[in-house]
Amino acid sequence: MAETPNRWEGVYQSKEEAETSWFEDRPQVSLDLIAETGAGKDAAIVDVGAGSSRLVDCLLEQGFRRITVLDLSETALRMARARLSPDAPVEWVAANVLHWQPSGRFDLWHDRAAFHFLTEASDQDAYLRVMDRALVPSGHAIIGTFAPDGPASCSGLPVARYDGALLSERLGSGYQLVRSLSHEHRTPWGSVQRFHFGLFRKV
């Protein structure tokens, strides 16, 4: 993972927001799954590997007020921050999630397309340890990855692909699968990427 921060800095420094394959004007699947958790407006939510995602904008519009946005790229976080009011109730964290030590605990962990870049079991284990420490009992995790019939790589990096069963197995018995959802993401240039989203409850 050592080269990854510079890689993502380069991506966000060289491309406009809507020139990235993962751009979504409105992350509706994520919003729907967050709504399904029943999270109240005071729920603590972290968006892991957020990049310059507009999820934070949408959550603020909906009245959420305890949001943490984490990414490896400071440039991506600056892009997102620039869209919002300076006094928006958001904590911005430039960090590698594998080594992150959250200052508090969260009711909801959201990750669209960060976990699937972890192809080594040791990195996956490190991620899941951080997630488990960060989530409160009965908290929810939403993890979106490329599906088994989705792309085998992204931005020149290999990915691990999952469906509900594979993701459940990887998270282990401490997490109950609440919803398994297939989604076809259309890139800004019209190609289709098949995703899988899993909504889990910590047991």
**What's the story with the biggest beta sheet?**
7 strands, mixed
Q: What is the strand content?
A: 25-35%
Strands across the major sheet, in which order?
3-2-1-4-5-9-8
Mean pLDDT: 91
Helix content: 25-40%
Structural class label: alpha/beta
**What is the CATH H-level superfamily?**
Vaccinia Virus protein VP39
Query: Which fold name corresponds to the CATH topology?
Result: Rossmann fold
Order of helices and strands: HHEHEHEEHEEEHEE
What is the rounded distance between the termini? 30 Å
Instruction: Output the CATH class name.
Output: Alpha Beta
Q: Just name the CATH architecture.
A: 3-Layer(aba) Sandwich
Unreliable runs, pLDDT <50, ≥5 residues?
A: none
Shape: globular
The rounded Rg comes to: 16 Å
Number of strands: 9
InterPro entries: Methyltransf_25 (IPR041698), SAM-dependent_MTases_sf (IPR029063)
Domain Methyltransferase: 45-139
Pfam families: Methyltransf_25
GO molecular function, one term: methyltransferase activity
